[in-house]
Amino acid sequence: MPNDHGKQIKDDAQYEALRHKGMSKEKSARIANSPKASKKGGQASDLDSRTKSELLAEAKKIGITGRYAMKKKELIEAIRNH
């Protein structure tokens, strides 16, 4: 039985599984709270097919600093490794 992480975490079992795999609390919570999330990490569109402005918006949403100075490939890498 997964711990209850309060109302801020929608899927406690998924959150705990992601934390056990070594993901940060922030990333685990973001995936566990995503409405499109699945056990494999979600159904987000392929990052390579997104425009730079879409990538900038995603980077802003997850709090990546220095994003405006990054090239598209750097943004993709930063988003994937955040």
What does this structure look like?
The protein is an all-alpha fold and 82 residues long. It has two domains: 1-44, no CATH class; 47-80, no CATH class. It is 46% helix and 0% strand. The protein is built from four helices and no strands. Helix 1 packs antiparallel against helix 2 (25-33) and helix 3 (52-62) packs parallel to helix 4 (72-80). The mean pLDDT is 81.
Strand content: under 5%
Poorly predicted regions are: none
Instruction: Let me know the average pLDDT.
Output: 81
Helix content: 40-55%
Radius of gyration: 14 Å
Concise summary:
The protein has 82 residues and is mostly helical. The protein has two domains: 1-44, no CATH class; 47-80, no CATH class.
Keywords for this entry:
82 residues, 2 domains, 4 helices, mainly alpha
List strands and helices in order, with pairings.
Blueprint: H1 12-20, H2 25-33, H3 52-62, H4 72-80
